[in-house]
Amino acid sequence: MAYAFVCFPAFAQVTISCSSPSWGVAARPRRLLPAVRCASSAPEAVAHETDLFDLKRYMAEKARRVDDSLDRALPLRHPERLLASMRYSLLAPGKRVRPVLTLAACELVGGEESTAMPFACAVEMLHVMSLVHDDLPCIDNDELRRGRPSNHVVFGEGVAVMAGDALHCFAFAHAAEATAGVPPMRVLRAVAELGKATGAEGLLAGQVVDIECEGKEVGLEVLEYIHLHKTARLLEAAVACGGIIGGAEEEEVERLRRYGRTVGLLFQVVDDVLDVTRTSEELGKTAGKDLAKGKTTYPKLMGLEKARLLAEELAAKAEEELQGFDRNRARPLRHLARFIAHRHN
Amino acid sequence: MAYAFVCFPAFAQVTISCSSPSWGVAARPRRLLPAVRCASSAPEAVAHETDLFDLKRYMAEKARRVDDSLDRALPLRHPERLLASMRYSLLAPGKRVRPVLTLAACELVGGEESTAMPFACAVEMLHVMSLVHDDLPCIDNDELRRGRPSNHVVFGEGVAVMAGDALHCFAFAHAAEATAGVPPMRVLRAVAELGKATGAEGLLAGQVVDIECEGKEVGLEVLEYIHLHKTARLLEAAVACGGIIGGAEEEEVERLRRYGRTVGLLFQVVDDVLDVTRTSEELGKTAGKDLAKGKTTYPKLMGLEKARLLAEELAAKAEEELQGFDRNRARPLRHLARFIAHRHN
Question: What stretch or stretches form a coiled coil here (chains A, B) (predicted)?
């Protein structure tokens, strides 16, 4: 399938090499960066018995500050219906994985949390707006999101379209305006990063190809194109923006980028696994949706156990990208990769 | 109606004072900047017989370069359906009034056209994305735009939503990344300007209030709130961004802002007039739409002749804001105001 060679530039940068026979990267060795050892040959990256870290508490504290910042950034004001719709989705309880990644990456390279907070908020706004639009009847037609009725169910389709658009605008305005104490060049670079990650060469490319492939049999290469764009690209940008704002060196930004991309793919593999193993109540969204729609998923292509193994391998690969950073400062991102690999909803 | 006092901050900055008895600003003198003379008492701003300028040629040349830049910035690539949808609307023949305003404002304050081109393109992308989403069945349900079938009629609703979103992302990424030779602080300020102009405190606020008021009787204050947000705010930002990128002084940016806002209101008053006086063929979009929908318009509220007079007064007011700038360099913006006042479609 020549498609992958021409159209999958992001995919070609994935550096994972592992033993799964259906892993589609091996056919394109020249486009790959040097292969790294997979989980099975790198046991030191799998378990660190002494690496104690209360990730749950870390995540909860960061998420609380993100929630506070989002709430303060977007108070209810006129026109109330629009603002209420924006706030309904933006402030819905969530794990805030993406903004926490931004904050953690900024701190990893020596930056302060507060300087990265506007970008962390912007990343979440862009994520949430993509969910609001995805759920629309003319796209995924999903009536349940984060355990509550979707935005358009509550506010109507027209307002949901506009609330998504308004979150979009606000994300960029907020990132550009509220980021303080950072050289403007860095802020600009991070703004461009967010724009590219969410647009026609990022998230939306994945979304469109995903819809085009609905009901069709696709192979691992196309499945990975979809996930690397639809899910991983924004996670990559979330981490990269944190690094850029925190003043990371070029090579550090690239390592953070690869970490984010790998974690993004991991996120989706786990999502696919959860879709077949969990109930709607546990997930807070419609379960078994992919299967019902005849969508290709990792468990469908490689079986449930191999998909779980792939998740382990990706988690190990993500951890490897963090080597070279200060080990102590890297703990949150290291444990976040493990958390994403082992989450239950 | 207390609504206007609380919710219409942009409205309160309009500095027009004129003799129309139904002009609703006079009731809030403390929130107004010093009143300026209206057209009838400032004949020198109405007609300049010796001020010859080939606006048609100027506009055509600028629009051609904007078209070229848009075409180059967004080539057709994978995923083709998404890009084709974006290009279908973005490259549809249009007058490019907003980007021309950006370029003209930049040159007015001594900047070079090329430095403002990425922002000119971004302004057009944001304008076009708002049209694509406005036309959706769940919002304005309009099947004709710029003389051609609307985006969702050709590409389907889902793709139209995503193409609009992708234009949105690209606008910000392009403005942030492609602007060269300008201090990053200026670029950042202009990015924030665009985000605010198109979001919940700008264009979308006007859009939502417009929809909420459909089928209701509204007064001039609400009508002006709608137009100052839905139409004028982006025109204001187009001009302000040109000034900011060109290195305008603070006070110059404010004057440009007022010029843009006045021209924006003018644009809408003329639009309302054209809606009742022109055919769909002449307009390139559905004519008589406002009337059919029972929408409040300027002609409906004040009669056709008074609406025409208001347009003249706004054109004169816009020209007055240009006094103090180099008279020669201000010619394009001066004539643009007249052109908008006297356009036929």
Answer: 301-328
- Nearest by CB: B82 against A168, A189, A205: A205
Amino acid occupying residue A96:
R
Its ipTM equals 0.84
Among positive and negative, which fits the CA dihedral A253, A257, A258, A259?
positive
- All residues at 6 or more sequence positions from A52 whose CB lies less than 8 Å from its CB, including other chains: none
Interchain pair B168, A166: CB under 8 A: no
Domain-located, residue B323? yes
| Rounded average pLDDT over A141-147 | 91
Buried b (16+ CB within 10 A) or exposed e, A11-23: bbbbbbbbebeeb
Give me the pLDDT at residue B281, please. Answer: 63
Query: A143: distance to nearest CA of chain B, Å?
Result: 16
Q: Give how far A206 is from chain B: nearest CA, Å.
A: 9
Q: CATH number for the domain including B213?
A: 1.10.600.10
| Interface list for B 119-178 with A (CB within 8 A) | 129-130, 133, 136, 138-139, 156-159, 161-162, 164-166, 168-174, 176-177
B180 phi, psi to nearest 5 deg: -120, 150
CB–CB of B169 and A78 under 8 A?
no
Whether A143 and A150 have beta carbons less than 8 Å apart is answered as: yes
Q: Which chain A residues are closer than 8 Å to B164 by Cβ? A: 165
Determine whether the interchain pair A159/B208 forms a contact, defined as Cβ–Cβ distance below 8 Å: yes
What is the least distance, in Å, from the CA of A159 to any CA of chain B? Answer: 8
Asked whether residue B45 is domain-assigned, the answer is no
Q: Across the interface, do A188 and B191 touch by the CB < 8 Å criterion?
A: yes
Q: Average pLDDT over chain B, rounded to whole? A: 85
- Interchain proximity B199–A83, CB inside 8 Å: no
Residue ranges of B 50-69 with Cβ closer than 8 A to chain A: none
| Portion 285-344 of A in contact with B at CB < 8 A | none
Which tokens is B229 given?
A: 């947000």
Number of domains, chain A: 1
- Work out the average pLDDT over A116-133: 98
B165/A204 Cβ within 8 A? yes
State mean pLDDT over B157-181: 97
Q: Which residues of B144-160 are buried (b: 16+ CB within 10 A; e: fewer)?
A: bbeebebbbbebebbbb
Residue B46 maps to a domain: no
- The SS3 assignment for A247 reads coil
Partner residues linked to B145 by β-bridges = B148
What's the one-letter identity of residue B186? Answer: R
Nearest CA to B249 out of B194, B330, B324, B328 is that of: B324
Residue A180 at interface with chain B, using a CB cutoff of 8 Å: no
Domain membership flag for residue A304: yes
Two tokens, residue A174:
């907020």
pLDDT band at A11 (very low <50, low <70, confident <90, very high): very low
Output the CA torsion B57→B60→B63→B67 (10° steps).
-140
Domain that holds residue A222: 55-342
- Indicate which of A172, A214, A233 best probes the interface with B, i.e. most B CBs within 10 Å of its own CB: A172
β partners of residue A145: A148
Residue B46 confidence (pLDDT) above 50: no
Q: Buried (b) or exposed (e) across A256-295, using 16+ Cβ within 10 A?
A: bbbbbbbbbbbbbbbbbbbbbebeeeebbbebeebeeeeb
B199 vs A81: CB contact, 8 Å cut-off? no
